[in-house]
């Protein structure tokens, strides 16, 4: 007997639908905008790291 226990990954609950509609109809708060900007900066630094100069590296002289 082969029973598929796969989870429906495309299911969206009624609560999630309601929250998505609410978010679409209302502007973001100041604190939400600050969080968004903070995480954009973090993502940018993660994806495009700034490499330090050789003279700044701790082990450069060894």
Low-confidence stretches: none
Oligomeric organization of the protein chains: single chain
Q: What count of helical segments does DSSP give?
A: 2
Describe the largest sheet: none
| Computed structural class | mainly alpha
Radius of gyration: 23 Å
Helix content: 40-55%
Query: What is the β-strand count?
Result: 0
Pattern of helices and strands: HH
Which overall shape is indicated by the principal axes computed on the Cα atoms?
Answer: flat
End-to-end CA span: 65 Å
- pLDDT averaged over residues: 87
User: What proportion strand?
Assistant: under 5%
Layout of strands and helices, then pairs:
Layout: H1 14-25, H2 30-47
Structure description:
With 62 residues, the chain is an all-alpha fold. Helices cover 48% and strands 0% of the residues. It is built from two helices and no strands. The longest helix is centred in the middle third of the chain and has 18 residues, at 30-47. The chain is flat, with a radius of gyration of 23 Å. The N and C termini lie far apart (65 Å).
Throw out a few tags for this protein:
single chain; 62 residues; 0% strand; flat
How is this structure best summarized?
This protein is an all-alpha fold.
């Amino acid at each position: 007997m082969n029973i598929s226990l796969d989870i429906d990954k495309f299911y969206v609950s009624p609560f999630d639908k309601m929250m998505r509609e609410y978010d679409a109809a209302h502007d973001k708060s100041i604190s939400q905008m600050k969080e968004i900007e903070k995480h954009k900066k973090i993502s940018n630094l993660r994806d495009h790291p700034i490499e330090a100069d050789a003279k700044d590296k701790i082990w450069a002289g060894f």
